[in-house]
Amino acid sequence: MATQLETRVDPVTAAIIRHGLDAAADQMLVALRRTAFSPIIYDCLDGAGAFYDRRFRMISQMTTLPLFTGSLGLAIESVVEQYEGRGGIQEGDVLVVNDPFLTGTHQWDVAVIVPGFIDGEIVSYAAIKAHHLDVGALAPFVTQSTDVYQEGTIYPGVKLWRAGVRDDDLYRLFVSNSRMPESAAGDLNAQVSACQTGIRGVLELIKRYGVERFEAALEVILDAGEAKMRERLAEFPNGRYTATAVHEHNGVELAMLPYEVAVEFDDASAFVNANTLAELRGLQR
C-alpha cells in the first residue's frame, strides 16, 4: 500500500528511479555474461539476477530467467535471519547459498548475495542465482539420487567475503568440490563481480535522490505494478478453475502421483492451490 512518503515523489522522479534500477540490472547482466566461464551462463543464460529492497521485495531484475527471482527474495531473507545474533551482515560481505530448501531449486543453482549499505545500514541487495556445471554430486548431473545430499555440496548461506576480505578457505572448499574447478571458480567470481557492479549502480541512484525519496518511489513503483496486475485479473470472471495431471515419479521412486491445481479468481485477486502439497512436503531430507 502507498505510504505517506509517496506524496513527496512526483511521477517523473519515480519513473527515473525505476529506469535507473533497470539500467543497473542491465549492467549487472553485462558484467555476468562477460566474465562467466561456462556457456550455460553466458550463452544459455541459465540464471537470474535482481535487486531487492531492505524488506526483501524485488525492485528490478535482469532479463534472464524470471523463474528464479521469486524464490531469491525468500532465500535472501532466510540467510539474513541466520546471521541475527551472530554479528549480522556487514558492509563488504558476500554470501553464498545453494540449499534447495532455501533457494527453491537444486544445488547446481548457486546464489550469490551482496548487500548494499548507506550510512551503515542495508538499503538494498543484489543477488544472482546461476547454474553451475558441477557442485560435487554423484555425477555432473544427477537423475538417480535418493536424497538431497547426493546432489552436491550444500552451502546454507555462508560468507564468502567478510567485510571486504575473501575467505580463501571457503573459496577453496567451493572450488575443490567440483569436477570442473576452473569453471566453478570462474563462474563464482563472475557472480560476485556482477553483483558488486549492480549494487554500485543502485547505491549511486539512492545517493542521488536520498534514501527516503528512493524508498518512497519504490512504493509508487510497486503500487503501480500491483494495480496493473489487479486490472488484468479483474478481466477473469470470479470462480474456481481446475486442471489435473499425473507425475510418474515422486522424486524418490517411480510412482503415479496424481494432482490437481486450482486457481480461484475473486474480485481482482487470484489464489492458487495444489492438492499434493502435503505429500510433497513429506519428502524431506
Spell out the key features of this protein.
single chain, 285 residues, three-stranded antiparallel beta sheet, 8 helices
Short description:
This protein is an alpha+beta fold and 285 residues long.
Low-confidence spans: 1-7, 277-285
Query: What is the tally of helical segments?
Result: 8
The helix-and-strand class reads alpha+beta
- Tell me what portion of residues adopts beta-strand conformation: 25-35%
The residue-averaged pLDDT reads 90
Q: Between the first and last Cα atoms, what is the distance in angstroms?
A: 38 Å
Overall geometric form = globular
Task: Write structural notes for this entry.
By secondary structure, the chain is of the alpha+beta class. It has helices spanning 11-35, 39-42, 66-82, 100-103, 168-176, 181-209, 211-233, 277-281; strands at residues 47-53, 58-61, 94-97, 109-118, 121-131, 156-162, 165-166, 239-249, 254-265, 270-274. The strands form two sheets. The chain has a seven-stranded antiparallel sheet with strand order 2-1-5-4-3-6-7, with helices on both faces. A three-stranded antiparallel sheet has the order 8-9-10, with no helix packed on it. Helix 1 packs across helix 7, helix 5 packs across helix 6 and helix 6 (181-209) crosses helix 7 (211-233). The longest helix has 29 residues, at 181-209. The protein is globular, with a radius of gyration of 20 Å. It starts with 10 loop residues before the first helix and ends with a helix. Residues 1-7 and 277-285 have low confidence and may be disordered.
